[in-house]
Specification:
With 1107 residues, the protein is α+β, with helices and mostly antiparallel strands.
Length: 1107
């Protein structure tokens, strides 16, 4: 922030066009115009003044270092001006008018507007009026203009503080003419005079008590009046004035209010013409995208809604609490992972055992909650021989009598070994995969055979222990190989108890070299495989009395310890042949194979056995930690980090970076860090995202009469639908989508339209529909599963594991339940009395099933869906999967955590809300690294990022497809549903625009079903005007709505995003949009060439450096 008492530095000479002038001339010119302002018009604490003047001193009028701008007398706001390039004749006339009339008028000559109609000029002048009266935080009381023709190098007519208009657009708009304007003196009387060359004069006069702004909520003092006049008032006056060729004086009646917080409004007409139609009242149950409930035929009539709701222009807050953000405390927590509840869900839902029993889990570990969506799930399902992905290593149990391989096989695939297809030369390719069967080295023992056993212990959310033992018949005492599997582990470690270590290789061993170990009583080997990849091995016996560890080559596929049985730790790690490119694309020049081995030497002997998750949130700032449990040597752990970890590491964690890098399977290059604790920091938590539409470009919305009428039309029709028929389905997923859809309709009616009567009708119907699920009387009730500890649908037990997308088998719970939780949050927001104990218990159990944060809650596993290591969730449940868990819909993933956030907000669970905000920040970073691939993505393969979305991201591959079809609209769209308030936080506008241009624009014309609406609603985050026009087009078809979409919400969200774009683009666009609505200029009569939608006018923030 600049020192307000220090003048900003100006260049010694400023170049503009063909003219050059010095800063001394600049200040001298400033002095020449400053004297026209009386001292009373100057703020006693000017924002800009010479350093020699004290802050409370009025600057002398004759000093060249006096304030360059007129200062707002109320709030120290510099005056906003419009300066447009003009010819010398206009400049001369302008100076004359200034001298005669002062600064309370706009004076424009038409000499340079010969080719433009009167309507165009009036529109331009009105635009200037709006620019000067509607874009600052407080009303302007005085203004000052700089009439030097070269002054437009620093041209300024500012929008709100956060608005920037790209430079250069003025030259596209007005080629020859420039106006310098100033309005709004303390008299609060604004006069606009146009002097037309043909001697025709049109005058527009408005007398107002003060000025308000249409794009912001204005807080007025108790004594001040707040005008309810909008741009539409000005626009209507302008149209009246320009309809005649003779002088016309038109007045606009402006109503005022003394409310503490007022916004621009226009009274609604007595009747409003709205569209209505016949609606289908059932939701497709087949799993396909449907068009219901949507209009089947369009008619026009006067809506009964008009009599019950005043459709005014109004500003709507979008904060999390549903009220203005001022004074609302942002959630903070130092106990992010406190339990949600500890009650037994069986008392509400009943209980039963699951028919799909987990394998190789016994004893006390079988009675604890079992993780169903983690990296090691294959090890207790099906054949138990499908891989587990710790990243970067892939491990799998091998029990193969034909090869004689028994034990834990370790694999790693380099980037150059990935397989691309189906056409490897395509750009982009459809998929890439890490080939299976590339068995580098396995941990085994001479005592293992086909009757060996494998069991799992301590099944946590980021780790598991695996125990291998000889068959019971041949086992002696406690013989075992214990292997901890922890996400990111730098070494693959085996703890041997009285076994003879053996190692197998499916790639085959080229050479085995014993080298001197850097530590006493330890052993080190370098193993070169036939693929040219080197691995290092370290052996640390438990005691000095043990026989020497003597690894020998039995065959090119088998190494055995010739020293016999061994008790101690053995570790292996892969040595990169060459270091992979870092995220910046550079390769560390100091890297060599020797340097990488030196890193392994330093940290060998220490290994992780588990992870404890920690974290805290303070408002917008959050951090989370991985606190590793470890054993072995007293040196820091060596652990591999994914790209999104590195991007958020705290400085202390970054200090542990090493030269060693290995490829992950599907999430880019991993770098080894030496640290026992990782700390990741997120400083952009979505604390201001609430129930209503949100955009990073603007946080409040001013809805015009036309927009409110469009929203009301959709809402009035959609509320008349049969909520029960559309929600009580044979699918928790589709039922949830329908509940969330109707919840958004009720939200729009209550918080945007303000129609209490219709809102009550909607909410009562929604409560009734939701009660079916809260009382567990839906078609397929939920039941508590005591086997895995979770809340599942009963449907799968009678209709098969794949029914309802595998809900009974724990697939997609975060997708399914997220919609239900979101609907409940909206109900609780609209009616806090609904938040009874029974309703809260039901919703909290849905959250506990998906995202229980605490091991103290013994009824659910910790974080079933969300993977804190990779930064997003996984699906698949208890299905064996050769390519591991997967994620098909990134947007339905963050919908769950947004729903959790809003539920926490309404029930007042500060820890949950803070945790949700942190999770959303983490998932935003992760998804934009691995699944949402913009053109500058350097993490995914270069020949794959052109797909823009991964499609289905597996642990072992990425495939640009979906489970239900291969059409591009399916693949792109599944990552965009639902389009909710937090979508604009996660999915960046630049990404959406690039995605649209590359993958969607060429196909959207041929899409005729609900995916069209899905894609256009998502596109509203990048080009809201195009999206708004689509949804409000006369050719809009009901087929463009999917069964889980509400036209009410689509119009509300779409309109808000247009307004956010207006905020970003500037006051000229604000005026134009609110006068005419989002449309193209070709639809406006006599638009000529004065305005172009991509530019409007060059507007700079003159005082931005002075704040």
């Amino acid at each position: 922030m600049k020192d307000p008492t220090t003048p900003p530095a100006l260049p010694t000479r400023i170049q503009h066009s063909q003219n050059t002038f010095s800063t001394a001339s600049w200040h001298s010119h400033t002095q020449s115009v400053h004297h026209r302002f009386p001292p009373s018009a100057l703020n006693p604490k000017p924002i800009y003044r010479a350093a020699r003047h004290t802050p409370n001193e009025t600057p002398p009028l004759q000093n060249k270092h006096t304030a360059r701008f007129a200062i707002n007398t109320q709030r120290c706001e510099p005056v906003r001006r419009v300066v447009v390039r003009y010819n010398h004749e206009i400049q001369r006339i302008h100076r004359r008018n200034v001298a005669r009339r002062g600064y309370s008028s706009i004076s424009i000559t038409m000499r340079s507007f010969r080719s433009h109609s009167l309507a165009q000029v009036a529109l331009f002048i009105t635009f200037i009026f709006i620019t000067l009266t509607s874009t600052t935080a407080t009303p302007l009381q005085s203004s000052q203009l700089h009439d030097h023709s070269r002054r437009d190098a620093y041209a300024a007519a500012s929008a709100a503080a956060e608005i920037d208009i790209p430079a250069g657009s003025v030259h596209k708009l007005v080629k020859r003419a420039t106006t310098t304007a100033a309005v709004c003196t303390a008299t609060s009387t604004v006069k606009t005079t146009q002097t037309v060359k043909t001697t025709q004069t049109v005058k527009t006069t408005q007398t107002v008590s003060s000025v308000v702004y249409v794009t912001q909520t204005v807080t007025a003092s108790a004594a001040a009046s707040s005008t309810k006049a909008t741009l539409s008032d000005v626009s209507s006056t302008m149209k009246t004035s320009t309809s005649s060729t003779s002088g016309v004086v038109a007045s606009v009646s402006v109503s005022t209010s003394k409310g503490a917080s007022e916004t621009a409004q226009i009274p609604a007409s007595a009747t409003t013409t709205l569209a209505t139609s016949t609606y289908t009242t059932s939701l497709d149950k087949s799993g396909a995208v449907t068009s219901a409930p949507t209009p089947t035929a369009a008619t026009t009539k006067t809506s009964s809604l008009a009599s019950s709701v005043s459709i005014n222009t109004k500003t709507i807050s979008t904060s999390a609490s549903g009220v203005t953000t001022a004074g609302v405390a942002k959630p903070s927590s130092n106990s992010l992972f406190a339990p949600i509840a500890l009650d037994n869900p069986a008392s509400k839902f009943g209980s039963r055992e699951h028919t799909e029993k987990p394998l190789s889990i016994s004893g006390s570990f079988l009675t604890q909650p079992i993780q169903t969506n983690k990296f090691y799930g294959n090890m207790y399902l099906g054949t138990q021989e499908q891989p587990a992905w710790t990243h970067p290593y892939v491990l799998s149990w091998i029990n193969n009598n034909s090869t004689g391989f028994y034990g834990m096989m370790v694999s790693h695939v380099d980037d150059g070994q990935k397989v691309y297809g189906p056409d490897a030369s395509a750009k982009p390719v459809q998929y890439y995969i890490n080939p299976g069967g590339m068995h580098s080295l396995s941990f085994s023992a001479q005592e293992f055979d086909t009757d060996m056993t494998m069991s799992l212990e301590k099944l946590d959310h980021m780790s598991v222990n695996v125990r291998f033992q000889p068959s019971a018949a041949s086992r002696s005492g406690n013989q075992a190989l214990l292997m901890p599997m922890v996400n990111g582990m730098g070494f693959v470690t085996g703890k041997y108890y009285k076994l003879t270590p053996a190692f197998n290789s499916g790639i085959l061993v080229r050479s085995l070299t014993q080298v001197k170990s850097p530590y006493s009583n330890s052993y080190k080997y370098e193993i070169l495989l036939e693929d040219g990849k080197m691995w290092v091995m370290y052996a640390f016996p438990d005691s000095t009395s043990q026989k020497a560890f003597n690894l020998t080559v039995v065959s090119n596929s088998r190494l055995v310890n010739a020293g016999g049985q061994f008790s101690g730790v053995i570790q292996i790690a892969k040595v990169p042949n060459t270091q992979g490119a870092t995220t910046s694309g550079a390769v560390d020049p100091s890297y060599t194979v020797t340097s990488a081995i030196s890193v392994y030497d330093t940290y060998a002997g220490s290994y992780a056995t588990g992870v404890t998750l920690g974290g805290s949130v303070q408002g917008d700032y959050g951090s989370y930690t991985f606190n590793y449990a470890k054993t072995g040597r007293a040196v820091p752990l060596l652990m591999f980090a994914l790209p999104h970890h590195e991007a958020s590491f705290a400085s202390a964690t970054l200090a542990g970076k090493t030269l060693v890098q290995l490829q992950s399977t599907t999430m880019g290059l991993m770098t080894a860090y030496a640290a026992d604790v990782w700390e990741m920091v997120e400083n952009d938590l979505p604390t201001d995202v609430g129930f209503l539409p949100w955009s990073p470009l603007g946080k409040s919305a001013t809805y015009t009469t036309k927009a409110l009428a469009a929203i009301a039309s959709a809402a009035n029709s959609e509320v008349s639908q049969d909520f029960d028929a559309q929600t009580d389905l044979d699918s928790m997923y589709y039922s949830g989508k329908a509940l969330a859809k109707f919840a958004h309709i009720c939200l729009a009616i209550n918080d945007v339209l303000g129609d209490k009567k219709l809102g009550t009708t909607c909410l009562n119907k929604l409560k009734t529909a939701f009660a079916t699920f809260q009382t567990n009387t839906q078609q397929w009730p939920l039941i508590y599963d005591t086997t895995y500890a979770g809340l599942i649908s009963t449907q799968g037990f009678s209709q098969g594991s794949l029914s309802d997308f595998g809900n009974t088998w724990y697939n997609d719970h975060h997708f399914h339940y997220g919609y239900h939780i979101h609907a409940a949050a909206i109900i609780g927001h609209l009616d806090p009395t609904w938040l009874t104990a029974a309703n809260k218990v039901y919703v909290n159990n849905l959250i506990r099933d998906v995202a229980n944060p605490s091991a103290n809650d013994q009824y659910y596993p910790v974080m079933r869906a969300f993977d804190w290591f990779v930064g997003h969730s996984w699906s698949k449940g208890i299905f064996e999967a050769g390519d591991g868990k997967d994620e098909e819909s990134s947007s339905e993933d963050f919908n769950m955590w947004y729903a959790q956030k809003m539920w926490a907000n309404v029930i007042g669970d500060n820890d949950m809300e803070a945790r949700s905000n942190l999770m959303l920040a983490v998932i935003k970073r992760s998804l934009n690294s691995y699944m949402l691939m913009d053109t500058d993505n350097t993490i995914q393969p270069a020949n794959f990022i052109g797909n823009f979305v991964t499609g289905i991201l597996f642990m072992n591959k990425a495939d640009h497809t979906t489970y239900f079809g291969t059409l591009e609209q399916y693949i792109q769209g599944i990552h965009a549903i639902p389009s909710i308030s937090v979508s604009g936080y996660v999915r960046q506008p630049t990404f959406i625009q690039h995605q649209w241009d590359a993958k969607i624009s060429s196909i959207i014309g041929g899409v005729t079903d609900g995916w069209k609406g899905i894609l256009y609603l998502d596109y509203a985050n990048a080009d809201p005007v195009a999206a708004w026009n689509f949804f409000n087009s006369s050719s809009f078809s009901s087929n463009y709505l999917d069964g889980g979409m509400s036209l009410t919400w689509m119009k509300k969200l779409g309109y808000f995003l247009v307004l956010s774009w207006v905020h970003r683009t500037g006051p000229g666009v604000s005026f134009f949009f609110l006068s005419y609505g989002p449309t193209t200029l070709s639809n406006i009569p006599n638009h000529g060439s004065l305005f172009v939608l991509d530019g409007f006018i060059e507007i700079f923030r003159m005082c931005s450096f002075e704040r």
